[in-house]
Amino acid sequence: MLYGKEHVERYVATDGEEGHDWQGTTTLILTTVGRRSGQRRSTPLIYRTDGDAFVVVASKGGDPDHPLWYKNLLANPEAEIQVKADRYRVRARTADEDEKARLWPRMAATWPQYDEYQTKTERSIPVVVLDPVEKLA
């Protein structure tokens, strides 16, 4: 089973042929710039589309703290994603309450553990909208 660094490596090497379809859902690769290190960091995340946008959830398995990739996006919302062979420059934003109310059930339908994760933490798990800015070559 692919996960973490190996997931990113296989996904990138195969243009998503390995890793896009994962455990009954779909994943993309999000690349952020580390808010402290300035290094590029790539993370596989479950996603769904909403119009032209891509939607991900900053769950960290219900941990009390946000995932590092989300903290990086808060510091710098400019990022890149890879969806299968397609790469995009995106601008990230946290869904507002109305958007989250609409998007959360869709995300939980594709990964039911999200509802469980929310019961494990007092923080409101953010739904993140990745709006494409430019398709990359």
From TrEMBL:
Q: Name one GO cellular component term.
A: plasma membrane
- Its domain of life? Bacteria
Q: Which GO terms describe its molecular function?
A: coenzyme F420 binding; oxidoreductase activity
Q: Which residues form a coiled coil?
A: none
Q: Which Gene3D superfamilies match?
A: Electron Transport, Fmn-binding Protein, Chain A
What reaction does this enzyme carry out catalytically? oxidized coenzyme F420-(gamma-L-Glu)(n) + a quinol + H(+) = reduced coenzyme F420-(gamma-L-Glu)(n) + a quinone
- Which family does the UniProt entry place this protein in? Belongs to the F420H(2)-dependent quinone reductase family.
Name the NCBIfam families for this protein. hi_GC_TIGR00026
Name listed for the protein in its UniProt record:
Deazaflavin-dependent oxidoreductase (Nitroreductase family)
State the species of origin.
Streptomonospora nanhaiensis
